[in-house]
Amino acid sequence: MNRFQWYVMGSVLAAGLLGLAHEASGETLAVEPATNSQCKPRTLKGNYAYASDGYTLSGTERVPFSQAGHDFFQGDGTLTGAVTVNVQGELFRLTYSGTYTLEPDCRGTMTVIDNLGVTAHFDIFVTKNGSELSFLQTDAGNVTSGFEVRGD
């Protein structure tokens, strides 16, 4: 498996470890339902810019990466995008397409497939007006999360 595939395959572990650490601390996470939220797939529409970093796990080795890109959400549950990824100094310029879901409480999922055939999965959390979203990759062995902001 090449370095990029390791990058794509490992971004959620850190979040899981943070959740375990939080749980181990004895605190409970309070989640209040968003009763007045009205998020729908059309809440995400337009160009969004993002940057994130993290690492993938390759055996016991952590392989760091950083990335910057943009998504174009069509407002119908589909998206396209482009990203430049730096994996230990090696650059990859990729394009991708995908799908997303968005629940009324503004939580959802996103799946993208890049031009190399690599699939990545994310949990997403969207502001009520759709101007920003946060994401967390949920593929085992990947540790990354970030924010996206809609351009004007």
Give a structural overview:
The protein is mainly β and 152 residues long. It has helices at 3-9, 13-24, and strands at residues 46-58, 61-73, 78-87, 90-102, 107-114, 119-126, 132-137, 142-150. An eight-stranded antiparallel barrel has the order 1-2-3-4-5-6-7-8. β2 (61-73) and β3 form a beta hairpin. The longest helix has 12 residues, at 13-24. Mean pLDDT is 83; it is low at 1-25 and 27-31.
Topology:
Elements: H1 3-9, H2 13-24, E1 46-58, E2 61-73, E3 78-87, E4 90-102, E5 107-114, E6 119-126, E7 132-137, E8 142-150
Antiparallel strand pairs: 1-2, 1-8, 2-3, 3-4, 4-5, 5-6, 6-7, 7-8
Signal peptide: 1-23
Organism: Cystobacter fuscus
Protein name: Lipoprotein
What would you call the quaternary organization?
single chain
Q: Beta-strand percentage? A: over 45%
**CATH architectural name:** Beta Barrel
How many domains, in number, for the residues?
A: 1
Head-to-tail CA distance between termini: 39 Å
Q: What's the CATH class, please? A: Mainly Beta
Give the overall form. Answer: globular
What is the residue-mean pLDDT, rounded to a whole number?
83
What class would the helix/strand composition place it in?
mainly beta
Please give the share of residues in helix.
10-25%
CATH topology: Lipocalin
- Give me the count of strands: 8
Discrete helix count: 2
| Spatial extent as radius of gyration | 16 Å
What is the chain-wise order of helices and strands?
HHEEEEEEEE
